[in-house]
Write a structure and sequence with these properties.
Distance between the termini: 42 Å
Helix content: 25-40%
Largest sheet: 8 strands, mixed
Shape: globular
CATH class: Alpha Beta
CATH architecture: 3-Layer(aba) Sandwich
Order of helices and strands: EHEEHEHEHEEEEHEH
Structural class: alpha/beta
CATH topology: Rossmann fold
Number of domains: 1
Amino acid sequence: MKIAVSGASGKTGFRIAEEALKKRFEVRLITRKGSVLPHSLKSCEKEELSLFNNSELDQSLSGVDTLIIATGARPNIDLTGPAKVDAVAVSNQVESCKRVGVKRIILVSSLCVGKLFHPLNLFGLILLWKKVGEDKVINSGIDWTIIRPGGLNESEENLQNQNILYTQKNSQEEGSIPRRLVAKACIEALNTSTAIGKIIEITSSEENKSLTMKKAIEGFNNISNTILEV
């Protein structure tokens, strides 16, 4: 399977690419022009392009089976960034996937997407624009999974003792998670067929029960069935 990772030079993106390589996937990196990548990704194909150039996007995604979207607006004085990156650029990537036949999309989003009254929205209404991007993925007609992580941190220590809490959409509003575990969750989603068509929220701590994504999704389904029966 060939995987493309957009935003591969970012702090989450390069970790996703590294985790994909560990699982022996063929990885293509999609980055901005002039981006610097870690030495660990030297074996990957690399495409430098603008996410607003449709022909470049189509070329970069040609022959790809799955696109993992790890692009995201950074805090900036330009408050139009979230609209451009989290809505328009995501939409452009989805449309390109449809044109070239990509079979699956995994989008890295955020907890609290769609909420209006949230401190993060002081940065260009980012949670509202992320919802626009999510909706574009959901309505694409392509198999999709959306991963909504909590607050991201750079820690690479004590990861073996950190367990991921997987929940359904709109179930968590706080909590954090190392970017490395977000990367692992993206690859786990890729290998979990029941993750297709799901929005999965993730945070981590040592107190969480150790559970696979597959088992957690089975729990989602059981909860849904109980609600229907009531």
